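User: I'm preparing a small set of examples for a lab meeting where we compare how different chains pack in three dimensions. I only have the primary sequence for this one, and I'd like the structure in token form so I can line it up with the others. Please keep the answer compact; I'll paste it straight into my notes.
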Amino acid sequence: MEETAQQALFPWSAQLNVGVEEIDAQHQELVNLLNALHASISAHQPLDRTRAALNDLADYTRTHFVVEESLMRVFGYPGFGHHKHIHEALMLQIKQLQQTLDAEHTEISPDQLDFLKVWLIQHISEADKRFGEYLVKVGTAQEWSAHVRETMERRTWWWKFW
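Assistant: Understood. Below is the structure token output for the 162-residue chain.
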């Protein structure tokens, strides 16, 4: 088996597509970052390298959530409040994980990594698919896709949100 195949926690699957190109691309990046975290842990890299991989995942997740939530507000998504609450709960858990790693100078356990994997798969497969269907239904998905892509590429605005 190839080394990269051994290190991947899970591959991206078209079954995870939500039907909105830019959100799907961001989800793919989240999977890549989670796989990079897994690779760091599997390679027994120093704790600071693993913490940096976790930070990258946390930062991109936060940015992705801001984009999703902004779109939900702009297009009047009826499930916005609940979806935002789910996002906030995950970010709190990631922050607690970061604090635990810093305080105890310990590694991320397989259970913690598995939690992140399962959470991401379930969230995309359920909540994000509902949101994607809503955007496609209201016919707005293509109107903002280029703007979102450009904003994510610049990534100069994210600091204003936290």
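A couple of notes for your slides: The radius of gyration is 16 Å. Confidence is low (pLDDT under 50) at residues 1-5, 157-162.

User: Perfect, thanks.
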